[in-house]
Specification:
By secondary structure, the protein is of the alpha/beta class. The chain has a single domain, classed as Alpha-Beta Barrel (TIM Barrel). It is 37% helix and 26% strand. The protein contains 13 helices and 16 strands. The strands form 2 sheets. Strands 1, 2, 3, 4, 5, 14, 15 and 16 form an 8-stranded mixed sheet that branches. The chain has an 8-stranded parallel sheet with strand order 6-7-8-9-10-11-12-13. A hairpin with a 2-residue loop joins strand 14 and strand 15. Helix 2 packs across helix 3 and helix 7 packs parallel to helix 8. The longest helix is centred in the middle third of the chain and has 33 residues. The two termini are 23 Å apart.
Length: 378
Protein backbone atom coordinates (compact mmCIF):
# COMPACT_ATOMS: atom_id res chain seq x y z
CA UNK A 1 0.00 0.00 0.00
CA UNK A 2 1.34 3.42 -0.99
CA UNK A 3 1.56 6.01 1.78
CA UNK A 4 1.75 9.74 1.25
CA UNK A 5 2.70 12.59 3.56
CA UNK A 6 2.58 16.27 2.68
CA UNK A 7 4.66 18.80 4.63
CA UNK A 8 3.22 22.23 3.87
CA UNK A 9 3.93 25.86 4.78
CA UNK A 10 7.63 25.14 5.11
CA UNK A 11 10.83 26.94 4.17
CA UNK A 12 12.45 24.19 2.13
CA UNK A 13 16.24 24.34 1.82
CA UNK A 14 17.05 23.09 -1.66
CA UNK A 15 20.49 22.74 -3.24
CA UNK A 16 20.62 26.38 -4.36
CA UNK A 17 17.65 28.23 -2.83
CA UNK A 18 15.17 28.36 0.01
CA UNK A 19 11.65 27.74 -1.30
CA UNK A 20 8.45 28.41 0.64
CA UNK A 21 6.05 25.60 -0.14
CA UNK A 22 5.38 21.90 0.30
CA UNK A 23 7.17 18.56 0.10
CA UNK A 24 5.30 15.42 -0.91
CA UNK A 25 6.66 12.16 0.51
CA UNK A 26 5.46 8.99 -1.20
CA UNK A 27 6.54 5.84 0.64
CA UNK A 28 10.31 6.33 1.19
CA UNK A 29 11.02 8.91 -1.53
CA UNK A 30 10.49 12.58 -2.22
CA UNK A 31 7.73 12.68 -4.85
CA UNK A 32 7.28 16.42 -5.32
CA UNK A 33 8.49 19.83 -4.19
CA UNK A 34 6.25 22.79 -4.97
CA UNK A 35 5.51 26.38 -4.02
CA UNK A 36 2.36 27.20 -2.09
CA UNK A 37 -0.10 24.53 -1.07
CA UNK A 38 -1.92 24.34 2.25
CA UNK A 39 -2.92 20.69 2.31
CA UNK A 40 -1.14 18.26 4.61
CA UNK A 41 0.74 18.83 7.84
CA UNK A 42 1.38 22.51 8.55
CA UNK A 43 5.06 23.12 9.31
CA UNK A 44 4.32 26.59 10.65
CA UNK A 45 7.04 28.22 8.56
CA UNK A 46 9.79 25.96 9.94
CA UNK A 47 12.72 24.94 7.77
CA UNK A 48 12.80 21.55 6.08
CA UNK A 49 16.38 20.48 5.34
CA UNK A 50 17.89 17.22 4.08
CA UNK A 51 18.81 14.64 6.71
CA UNK A 52 22.37 15.24 7.84
CA UNK A 53 25.20 12.92 6.79
CA UNK A 54 27.93 12.45 9.42
CA UNK A 55 31.22 10.95 8.18
CA UNK A 56 33.42 10.99 11.29
CA UNK A 57 32.15 10.60 14.82
CA UNK A 58 33.81 8.52 17.53
CA UNK A 59 30.95 9.43 19.85
CA UNK A 60 29.93 5.75 20.17
CA UNK A 61 33.10 4.99 22.15
CA UNK A 62 31.96 7.32 24.93
CA UNK A 63 28.72 5.37 25.34
CA UNK A 64 30.53 2.03 25.37
CA UNK A 65 33.35 3.15 27.70
CA UNK A 66 31.89 6.07 29.69
CA UNK A 67 34.60 5.86 32.37
CA UNK A 68 38.06 4.26 32.56
CA UNK A 69 37.68 0.47 32.93
CA UNK A 70 33.87 0.74 32.64
CA UNK A 71 32.19 -1.09 29.76
CA UNK A 72 28.53 -0.81 28.81
CA UNK A 73 26.43 -3.36 26.98
CA UNK A 74 27.47 -2.78 23.33
CA UNK A 75 23.94 -2.90 21.92
CA UNK A 76 22.72 -0.48 24.58
CA UNK A 77 25.67 1.77 23.75
CA UNK A 78 24.76 1.71 20.06
CA UNK A 79 21.13 2.57 20.81
CA UNK A 80 22.08 5.47 23.10
CA UNK A 81 24.47 6.83 20.47
CA UNK A 82 21.89 6.33 17.72
CA UNK A 83 19.18 8.18 19.66
CA UNK A 84 21.49 11.14 20.18
CA UNK A 85 22.58 11.45 16.56
CA UNK A 86 19.05 11.00 15.19
CA UNK A 87 17.56 13.66 17.43
CA UNK A 88 20.34 15.99 16.24
CA UNK A 89 19.00 15.57 12.69
CA UNK A 90 21.61 13.05 11.53
CA UNK A 91 19.94 10.39 9.37
CA UNK A 92 23.14 8.79 8.01
CA UNK A 93 26.08 8.22 10.32
CA UNK A 94 29.52 6.69 9.81
CA UNK A 95 30.47 5.30 13.21
CA UNK A 96 34.23 5.71 13.61
CA UNK A 97 35.94 2.70 15.18
CA UNK A 98 39.66 2.73 15.90
CA UNK A 99 41.98 0.29 14.16
CA UNK A 100 45.43 0.26 15.69
CA UNK A 101 45.32 0.83 19.42
CA UNK A 102 47.64 3.58 20.59
CA UNK A 103 48.58 4.14 24.20
CA UNK A 104 45.93 6.69 25.08
CA UNK A 105 43.22 4.03 24.84
CA UNK A 106 42.44 1.19 27.18
CA UNK A 107 40.23 -0.48 24.58
CA UNK A 108 41.23 -3.41 22.39
CA UNK A 109 40.85 -4.31 18.73
CA UNK A 110 38.49 -7.11 19.75
CA UNK A 111 36.25 -4.55 21.45
CA UNK A 112 36.09 -2.54 18.24
CA UNK A 113 34.89 -5.67 16.46
CA UNK A 114 32.33 -6.20 19.24
CA UNK A 115 30.97 -2.69 18.69
CA UNK A 116 30.79 -3.30 14.93
CA UNK A 117 28.83 -6.49 15.59
CA UNK A 118 26.44 -4.54 17.83
CA UNK A 119 25.92 -1.94 15.09
CA UNK A 120 25.23 -4.58 12.49
CA UNK A 121 22.94 -6.61 14.74
CA UNK A 122 20.97 -3.46 15.55
CA UNK A 123 20.62 -2.57 11.87
CA UNK A 124 19.52 -6.11 11.05
CA UNK A 125 16.82 -6.05 13.74
CA UNK A 126 15.63 -2.53 12.89
CA UNK A 127 16.51 -1.09 16.29
CA UNK A 128 18.18 2.07 15.03
CA UNK A 129 16.77 5.36 13.80
CA UNK A 130 19.67 6.52 11.62
CA UNK A 131 21.32 4.64 8.74
CA UNK A 132 24.62 3.34 10.13
CA UNK A 133 27.87 2.62 8.30
CA UNK A 134 31.38 2.03 9.67
CA UNK A 135 34.40 4.29 9.35
CA UNK A 136 37.71 2.70 10.35
CA UNK A 137 40.07 5.19 12.01
CA UNK A 138 43.39 3.55 11.19
CA UNK A 139 46.20 4.64 13.53
CA UNK A 140 49.04 3.73 11.17
CA UNK A 141 51.75 4.32 13.80
CA UNK A 142 50.37 1.50 15.98
CA UNK A 143 52.04 -1.92 15.73
CA UNK A 144 48.69 -3.75 15.58
CA UNK A 145 47.09 -1.57 12.89
CA UNK A 146 46.95 -4.19 10.15
CA UNK A 147 45.83 -6.89 12.57
CA UNK A 148 42.96 -4.69 13.74
CA UNK A 149 42.03 -3.92 10.14
CA UNK A 150 41.87 -7.66 9.39
CA UNK A 151 39.00 -8.04 11.88
CA UNK A 152 36.86 -6.17 9.34
CA UNK A 153 37.70 -8.32 6.31
CA UNK A 154 34.55 -8.84 4.27
CA UNK A 155 32.47 -6.42 6.35
CA UNK A 156 30.27 -4.68 3.78
CA UNK A 157 29.16 -1.97 6.22
CA UNK A 158 32.71 -0.54 6.17
CA UNK A 159 32.51 2.27 3.62
CA UNK A 160 35.23 4.68 4.79
CA UNK A 161 38.71 4.44 6.29
CA UNK A 162 41.03 7.23 7.41
CA UNK A 163 44.80 7.04 7.72
CA UNK A 164 46.08 8.87 10.79
CA UNK A 165 49.25 9.25 12.82
CA UNK A 166 48.88 10.84 16.25
CA UNK A 167 52.51 10.32 17.30
CA UNK A 168 54.33 13.39 18.69
CA UNK A 169 55.90 15.52 15.98
CA UNK A 170 53.37 14.34 13.41
CA UNK A 171 50.49 16.24 11.77
CA UNK A 172 47.99 17.26 14.47
CA UNK A 173 50.80 17.40 17.01
CA UNK A 174 53.65 18.77 14.89
CA UNK A 175 54.55 20.98 17.84
CA UNK A 176 55.69 18.97 20.85
CA UNK A 177 54.47 21.73 23.14
CA UNK A 178 50.89 21.16 21.96
CA UNK A 179 51.30 17.41 22.34
CA UNK A 180 52.57 17.86 25.90
CA UNK A 181 49.62 20.03 26.90
CA UNK A 182 47.16 17.48 25.51
CA UNK A 183 48.71 14.21 26.67
CA UNK A 184 50.31 15.18 29.97
CA UNK A 185 46.94 16.48 31.07
CA UNK A 186 45.03 13.51 29.69
CA UNK A 187 47.32 10.77 30.97
CA UNK A 188 48.59 12.55 34.11
CA UNK A 189 52.26 11.90 33.34
CA UNK A 190 55.37 13.21 35.01
CA UNK A 191 57.98 14.93 32.82
CA UNK A 192 60.17 11.82 32.74
CA UNK A 193 57.28 9.46 31.99
CA UNK A 194 56.15 11.79 29.23
CA UNK A 195 59.66 11.84 27.70
CA UNK A 196 59.76 8.03 27.59
CA UNK A 197 56.22 7.91 26.20
CA UNK A 198 57.12 10.32 23.40
CA UNK A 199 60.26 8.45 22.45
CA UNK A 200 58.35 5.17 22.28
CA UNK A 201 55.51 6.65 20.17
CA UNK A 202 57.94 8.36 17.76
CA UNK A 203 59.85 5.10 17.32
CA UNK A 204 56.61 3.25 16.59
CA UNK A 205 55.67 5.85 14.00
CA UNK A 206 59.04 5.65 12.29
CA UNK A 207 58.75 1.85 11.95
CA UNK A 208 55.05 1.37 11.27
CA UNK A 209 53.50 4.38 9.57
CA UNK A 210 54.74 4.01 5.99
CA UNK A 211 54.11 0.25 5.59
CA UNK A 212 50.73 0.46 7.30
CA UNK A 213 49.62 3.38 5.12
CA UNK A 214 50.58 1.52 1.97
CA UNK A 215 48.99 -1.78 3.02
CA UNK A 216 45.68 -0.30 4.15
CA UNK A 217 45.42 2.02 1.16
CA UNK A 218 45.89 -0.96 -1.16
CA UNK A 219 43.33 -3.04 0.75
CA UNK A 220 40.75 -0.23 0.63
CA UNK A 221 41.27 0.27 -3.09
CA UNK A 222 40.70 -3.45 -3.67
CA UNK A 223 37.50 -3.45 -1.59
CA UNK A 224 36.07 -0.14 -2.84
CA UNK A 225 36.36 1.56 0.56
CA UNK A 226 36.65 5.35 0.34
CA UNK A 227 39.91 6.64 1.81
CA UNK A 228 40.42 9.76 3.90
CA UNK A 229 43.62 11.43 5.05
CA UNK A 230 43.77 12.89 8.54
CA UNK A 231 45.46 16.00 9.93
CA UNK A 232 47.54 16.74 6.85
CA UNK A 233 49.85 19.64 7.66
CA UNK A 234 51.98 20.15 4.54
CA UNK A 235 51.71 20.12 0.77
CA UNK A 236 53.91 16.99 0.84
CA UNK A 237 51.31 15.25 3.01
CA UNK A 238 48.63 16.13 0.45
CA UNK A 239 50.78 14.88 -2.44
CA UNK A 240 51.17 11.57 -0.59
CA UNK A 241 47.43 11.42 -0.03
CA UNK A 242 46.69 11.94 -3.71
CA UNK A 243 49.11 9.16 -4.64
CA UNK A 244 47.34 6.82 -2.20
CA UNK A 245 43.92 7.46 -3.72
CA UNK A 246 42.56 9.63 -0.91
CA UNK A 247 39.20 11.30 -1.64
CA UNK A 248 38.49 13.15 1.62
CA UNK A 249 40.94 15.37 3.52
CA UNK A 250 39.91 15.19 7.17
CA UNK A 251 40.87 18.05 9.48
CA UNK A 252 43.85 19.58 7.62
CA UNK A 253 45.83 21.44 10.25
CA UNK A 254 47.12 24.31 8.11
CA UNK A 255 45.70 26.62 5.47
CA UNK A 256 48.40 25.46 3.05
CA UNK A 257 47.34 21.81 3.37
CA UNK A 258 43.67 22.71 3.01
CA UNK A 259 44.32 24.75 -0.12
CA UNK A 260 46.44 21.99 -1.65
CA UNK A 261 43.72 19.44 -0.85
CA UNK A 262 41.05 21.63 -2.44
CA UNK A 263 43.21 22.20 -5.53
CA UNK A 264 43.74 18.43 -5.82
CA UNK A 265 39.98 17.80 -5.85
CA UNK A 266 39.73 16.30 -2.37
CA UNK A 267 36.70 17.01 -0.21
CA UNK A 268 37.99 19.14 2.67
CA UNK A 269 36.37 18.12 5.96
CA UNK A 270 36.59 20.10 9.19
CA UNK A 271 35.02 19.79 12.62
CA UNK A 272 31.75 21.53 13.43
CA UNK A 273 33.00 22.14 17.02
CA UNK A 274 35.90 24.07 15.46
CA UNK A 275 33.34 26.25 13.64
CA UNK A 276 31.32 26.92 16.77
CA UNK A 277 34.33 27.55 19.04
CA UNK A 278 36.07 29.76 16.51
CA UNK A 279 39.18 27.60 16.39
CA UNK A 280 40.79 24.21 16.86
CA UNK A 281 41.25 22.77 20.35
CA UNK A 282 44.78 21.77 19.23
CA UNK A 283 45.70 25.24 18.03
CA UNK A 284 45.48 24.36 14.33
CA UNK A 285 43.78 26.28 11.51
CA UNK A 286 40.27 27.62 12.08
CA UNK A 287 37.44 26.04 10.08
CA UNK A 288 35.91 29.52 9.74
CA UNK A 289 39.09 30.72 8.05
CA UNK A 290 38.84 27.89 5.54
CA UNK A 291 35.14 28.60 4.97
CA UNK A 292 35.87 32.28 4.31
CA UNK A 293 38.56 31.25 1.82
CA UNK A 294 36.34 28.82 -0.07
CA UNK A 295 38.33 25.81 1.16
CA UNK A 296 35.68 24.01 3.23
CA UNK A 297 33.42 21.33 1.72
CA UNK A 298 32.24 19.08 4.54
CA UNK A 299 31.56 19.42 8.25
CA UNK A 300 31.68 16.65 10.84
CA UNK A 301 30.28 16.70 14.37
CA UNK A 302 33.39 14.82 15.57
CA UNK A 303 32.67 14.63 19.31
CA UNK A 304 29.44 16.72 19.69
CA UNK A 305 26.56 15.37 17.55
CA UNK A 306 24.41 18.50 17.80
CA UNK A 307 27.25 20.72 16.56
CA UNK A 308 26.61 19.52 12.99
CA UNK A 309 23.22 21.18 12.53
CA UNK A 310 24.28 24.08 14.73
CA UNK A 311 27.30 24.88 12.57
CA UNK A 312 25.30 24.77 9.33
CA UNK A 313 22.91 27.48 10.47
CA UNK A 314 25.76 29.41 12.10
CA UNK A 315 27.97 29.50 8.98
CA UNK A 316 25.08 30.72 6.86
CA UNK A 317 24.75 33.67 9.23
CA UNK A 318 28.34 34.70 9.93
CA UNK A 319 30.45 33.95 6.86
CA UNK A 320 30.07 36.30 3.91
CA UNK A 321 29.54 34.45 0.66
CA UNK A 322 28.08 31.31 2.24
CA UNK A 323 24.32 31.02 1.89
CA UNK A 324 22.14 28.76 4.01
CA UNK A 325 21.79 26.23 1.13
CA UNK A 326 25.58 26.14 0.75
CA UNK A 327 26.10 25.65 4.49
CA UNK A 328 23.45 22.92 4.65
CA UNK A 329 25.15 21.17 1.71
CA UNK A 330 28.29 20.86 3.86
CA UNK A 331 26.37 18.60 6.26
CA UNK A 332 24.23 16.72 3.74
CA UNK A 333 24.87 16.76 -0.02
CA UNK A 334 28.66 17.14 0.05
CA UNK A 335 29.44 14.35 2.55
CA UNK A 336 26.97 12.03 0.83
CA UNK A 337 28.61 12.57 -2.55
CA UNK A 338 32.11 12.20 -1.07
CA UNK A 339 31.38 8.60 -0.09
CA UNK A 340 29.25 7.70 -3.10
CA UNK A 341 25.79 7.87 -1.50
CA UNK A 342 23.99 9.45 -4.45
CA UNK A 343 20.46 8.62 -3.21
CA UNK A 344 20.37 11.17 -0.37
CA UNK A 345 21.68 14.51 0.86
CA UNK A 346 19.44 16.90 -1.08
CA UNK A 347 15.70 17.61 -1.28
CA UNK A 348 14.94 16.54 -4.83
CA UNK A 349 12.35 14.37 -6.53
CA UNK A 350 13.41 10.72 -6.46
CA UNK A 351 15.82 11.07 -3.53
CA UNK A 352 15.35 9.36 -0.19
CA UNK A 353 12.91 11.15 2.07
CA UNK A 354 15.52 11.83 4.75
CA UNK A 355 14.29 15.14 6.13
CA UNK A 356 14.59 17.33 9.21
CA UNK A 357 12.13 19.96 10.44
CA UNK A 358 14.02 22.80 12.15
CA UNK A 359 12.99 25.99 13.91
CA UNK A 360 15.66 28.55 14.80
CA UNK A 361 15.20 30.04 18.26
CA UNK A 362 17.67 32.53 19.76
CA UNK A 363 20.12 31.64 16.94
CA UNK A 364 20.02 27.95 17.94
CA UNK A 365 18.42 25.40 15.58
CA UNK A 366 15.72 23.36 17.31
CA UNK A 367 15.17 19.93 15.72
CA UNK A 368 11.43 19.30 15.83
CA UNK A 369 10.92 16.24 13.61
CA UNK A 370 13.18 13.81 11.73
CA UNK A 371 12.15 11.46 8.93
CA UNK A 372 14.33 8.70 7.50
CA UNK A 373 13.10 7.16 4.25
CA UNK A 374 9.72 8.74 4.87
CA UNK A 375 9.30 7.27 8.33
CA UNK A 376 9.33 9.52 11.35
CA UNK A 377 12.23 8.49 13.62
CA UNK A 378 12.47 11.47 15.99
Amino acid sequence: MTTETILSNARIVLADEVLTGSVLIRDDKIADVSTGGDAGEDMGGDYIIPGLVELHTDHLEGHYAPRPKVRWNPIAAVLAHDAQVATAGITTVFDALRVGIDEDSDMTAQEMRKLADAIEDSVRHDRVRADHFIHLRCEVSAPDCQQGFSYFDGDERVKLASLMDHAPGQRQFAKLETYAIYYKGKLKMSDEAFRIFCERRMAQSAVNSSPNRAAIAAACKARGIVLASHDDATVAHVDEAVQQGIRVAEFPTTEAAARASKDAGLGVLMGAPNVMRGGSHSGNVSARTLAEGGMLDILSSDYIPFSLIQSAFFLGDVVDGISLPQAVAMVSKNPAEAVGLEDRGVIEIGRRADLVRVRVDEHVPVVRTVWREGRRVA
